[in-house]
Specification:
alpha+beta, Jelly Rolls, Aminopeptidase, Immunoglobulin-like, 9-stranded antiparallel sheet, 8-stranded mixed sheet, carboxypeptidase
């Protein structure tokens, strides 16, 4: 491991080359307000490939031109293959970073950042821009007032994106950024995105630009809070018989957490029908999941009206809940900044500054301590662990958004869920917290490792972007070598995650889907992102049919028994029945010995076989009351104890 370098505070920016001046005659005449014109070329989203990027020099491979992408994140160590920017060599007198658009393109602006690093301060403070059609002959962007080469102001910190619009848009194939000054003591390092519009090629000299997107007639744009609420209302009005919009609570700033329910009987739990959910927007700046859920509700409504058999079956056999924005306050902050200018972290937290994905109760620690003491499952249950006392106190640091979601989880018997995030391309599954205290990462599987790997593989295997064999890693890890899935704790530990809490406090199995390298993709990329994820979103919901399901009933009355425990031999994690006695237990194909038990009843055990055919496999139970329970009920009803029962009780007392 490399020795950590001592970090010194940044000094004021200075001219890095003696030959460069920034006199008023040469600085750029900036408009009062700068807003993006053309969409991004695709450095951040990886639509621009590594071989389209070139540079005058690089300090190392890990600081090569392919790392000069907006918002790219570094690895933990300087000098590895995954540093956080392009950096020219120190002795490079005329550094430049070049992008080949491959087609005639109208360049309209540039967005830059400094180097992402926990060890160093490096950023460019000014730069020039040049253009070419053949990479040999170049011309520069000119200052309107002086006619001289424009010098664009760049960054004053490593992370804040800075937008510069060109005085006049330029049509060319190549664009170069030429750093002029950078932080004293630092290096010429930058990350960038290029704003560019495609132009027509009447002579057909270049291959056609591939058309990305979807043929679905849906609303492909970013929706702020008001627009989201309006769209959900429109879907409800279009499909009133299969939809219901409801709120589970409010954010810290009073914005409602709206949920779209989709089912053939909205508003009620049907016996034997599983409940599933998608949650998006836990981090407000990770906007793709929000838009995918808004697109999904439009798609399900439209296809149900068309009679699509797959969608019809999904909505008649499943009750679906879609929460597009768990952190609406954070999203509004990010939305106001815009998709290209929000940076990596702005809007991530709620208005109180709380990271909601670290805000759920840590139930892992008490469970593991009880396991180490040999108390599970006889003394301490292996499921439905209660909230710790400290967590329920009025002054506990628990966000209102988190409290609302917990009450929602407790109110509805969810079976399956996915938590949609952004910034990577991978599906992670519990446990998210490492079992070894203070370990930064460590493989920490649940007793249902096989099920979670199955669920994760289903989504990753049907996601177009994850299955692209030519895709490059987003940042510093190549998840394709793991099948695009990973145990959350083996990636990085996350105490208080929603996934772990869902598994330990409820019946629900939940994974995290990192949907895209770009946390907040531009609107023109939403069509392609929908195509990347559409089949995966549907296929994942259908996995709720995997395993066994049934109803636990009283043998005498045929009434369903609530809170009966369903235990599977060899898996140290049980589930419980809903209030009607129905249950669902996700399992991979195989033979299982399943036991149903409930207070006041004799336990019952049976063999259940899960096949590869679509399930769930029926596995029902009828439980017989214990004599003690019968006696309680009789006495409560004021009845006399029957002679045969009295004799049995006397014999039991004699044995004791």
């Amino acid at each position: 491991m490399k020795k950590r370098k001592k970090l010194t505070p940044p000094r004021p920016p200075v001219t890095a080359r003696a030959s460069v001046t920034t006199s008023p005659a040469r600085t750029l005449d900036l408009p009062e307000k700068q807003e993006p014109d053309c969409p991004p070329l695709g450095l951040e989203s990886l639509r621009v490939s590594d071989n389209q990027l070139d540079a005058s020099s690089s300090q190392s491979f890990g600081l090569g031109p392919h790392r000069g992408r907006l918002n790219i994140q570094s690895g933990l160590e300087d000098g590895d293959l995954f540093d956080g920017a392009w950096c020219a060599e120190q002795q490079d007198a005329e550094p430049w970073l070049q992008v080949d658009a491959r087609h005639p393109t109208r360049f309209s602006g540039i967005i830059t950042q400094g180097r992402n690093s926990i060890w160093r301060y490096d950023w460019v403070t000014s730069y020039k821009v040049q253009f070419s059609n053949d990479s040999l002959t170049w011309w520069g962007s000119k200052n309107r007032s002086s006619g001289m080469d424009a010098v664009f102001p760049a960054n004053s910190d490593p992370e804040t994106p800075v937008l510069n619009l060109l005085p006049e848009p330029q049509v060319a194939r190549f664009i170069r950024l030429l750093p002029q000054t950078w932080l004293q003591g630092g290096a010429s390092c930058l990350r960038a995105e290029i704003l560019a519009c495609p132009v027509s090629d009447p002579n057909g000299l270049f291959p056609e630009v591939p058309v990305l997107g979807s043929s679905d007639t849906l609303d492909f744009r970013h929706h702020d809070y008001k627009a989201m609420r309006k769209l959900m209302k429109q879907v409800n009005e279009q499909c009133p018989n299969i939809t219901r919009v409801y709120s589970i609570g409010k954010s810290h700033q009073g914005l409602k957490l709206y949920v779209m329910e989709m089912s053939d009987q909205p508003g009620e739990h049907e016996l034997g029908e599983p409940e599933v959910r998608y949650v998006a927007g836990m981090h407000g700046n990770e906007a793709l999941g929000r838009e995918l859920l808004l697109l999904l509700m439009q798609f399900l409504c439209r296809e149900f009206l068309r009679g699509d058999p797959r969608v019809t079956r999904l909505l008649t056999e499943t009750r679906i809940h879609l929460l597009p924005s768990m952190n609406p306050d954070g999203y509004e902050t990010a939305f106001r900044r815009g998709s290209e200018l929000v940076g990596w972290a702005e809007g991530r937290w709620n208005h109180q500054g709380i990271d909601l994905n670290h805000n759920f109760a840590d139930l892992n620690t008490p469970l593991w301590e009880a396991e180490d003491d040999g108390l599970v499952p006889d003394t301490v249950p292996n499921h439905h662990l209660p909230l710790p006392t400290y967590y329920t106190l009025p002054n506990a640091t628990v966000a209102p958004e988190t409290r609302a979601v917990i009450k929602w989880m407790e109110r509805i018997p969810f079976v399956l869920s996915a938590n949609l995030h952004g910034g990577e391309l991978v599906v992670s599954y519990p446990f998210d917290m490492t079992r070894t205290p203070w370990a930064a990462r460590e493989l920490t599987p649940t007793p249902d490792e096989a099920v979670f790997r199955w669920l994760s593989t289903v989504y990753a295997g049907t996601n177009w972007a994850m299955q692209d064999p030519d895709r490059r890693p987003c940042h510093s890890q190549d998840f394709s070598s793991y099948g695009n899935i990973i145990n959350g704790a083996d990636w990085h530990t996350v105490p208080g995650s929603m996934n772990d809490f869902s598994y330990l406090h409820t019946n629900c199995f939940e994974v995290t889907v990192e949907l895209s390298c770009d946390k907040f993709p531009h609107e023109n990329e939403l069509r392609q992102e929908w195509e990347n994820n559409k089949d995966a979103l549907l296929t994942y919901l259908e996995q709720v049919r995997m395993g066994i399901a049934g109803v636990v009933r009283d043998k005498d009355t045929e009434i369903g028994i609530a809170d009966a425990v369903i235990a599977v031999d060899g898996i140290n994690h049980d589930v419980t029945t809903a209030w009607g006695g129905d249950y669902w237990r996700l399992l991979t194909p195989g033979d299982y010995v399943v036991t149903a038990s409930a207070e006041g009843y004799h336990a019952a055990t049976r063999n259940c076989r899960v096949t590869f055919e679509e399930g769930p496999v029926p596995c029902n139970f009828h439980l017989t009351k214990t004599p003690k329970q019968r006696l309680r009920e009789l006495l409560a009803a004021g009845a006399k104890v029957p002679p045969d029962l009295r004799r049995r009780l006397e014999r039991l007392r004699g044995q004791n």
